[in-house]
Request: fold
Amino acid sequence: MQQIPNDPRHLEALLDFYAGAGVDCFLQDNPVDWVALTREHAAQRAQAAPQAAGHSQPQQPRHQTPANNFQGQTAAPVPAAPIAAPVGTAPPASAGQAPVLPDREIIAAARDLAASAPTLDELRKCLSSFEGCNLKLTAKKLVFADGNPGAKLMFVGEAPGRDEDLQGLPFVGRSGQLLDRMLAAIGLDRSSAYIANVVPWRPPGNRTPTPQETEICKPFILRQIELVNPDVLVFLGAASAKTLLGVQDGIRKMRGRWMTYPCKGRDISAIATYHPAYLLRSPLEKRLSWRDFLAIKQKLGEKTPD
Reply:
């Protein structure tokens, strides 16, 4: 096995990779070999099969089982024994609630519920009570928004990560700290902006939300934008821009280009830029994001009356 270099930078990169993959906590003192447990389970089933067949109901005469002309008998089905969870493993958060099957009715219910919210506080309550998205079963907290609801600048990302899930606020991890520095570079802070995500619950392991999950959550972010009614809307990453603008361009082609977002009878100036998490992996692209933020600052100046 290849040895991991004894270098703090390599170890930090490895831990960052584990955190990004969702390995963010220890469930037990000792590791669990799930592959070995699966093999043991298969062996137990193989041993249980002859015993179950021996205690099955008496075989029917051959002339009474026309569907089994080749065998002359039908073996009783062997029920699969459940795999016992290792000692000390906590039950899943969704143990007391069954998941739902995403369909058009769920999406329609989300649309009606979001439209019924007259304020941001009511919209938050609607999301807290909404049971149509299975991501809620595995997430720790609802990540609704942060910042100033009366701000003229609004940022929209894709979905929260580990730190956001723990604190219930968007962009509070490493990418959020970078976003704060980028705001400070143009003379702004979180009191000058409103920050939200398309999906308000963390997907397990920080995976990408499925199209069904995004479509279910979409009515809520649409209503959230309507209630904030900003002058400038910034999409952090291509995912949020594709979801809310319906475009298919990649972020390299899309970023830095002003677009319009129709909202409540008026067009909001919208722009897409690199997600801060991407900038942490590709620091050379920060120069392009710097141009985007300068353009955002200029656009806000144009929107502000003298």
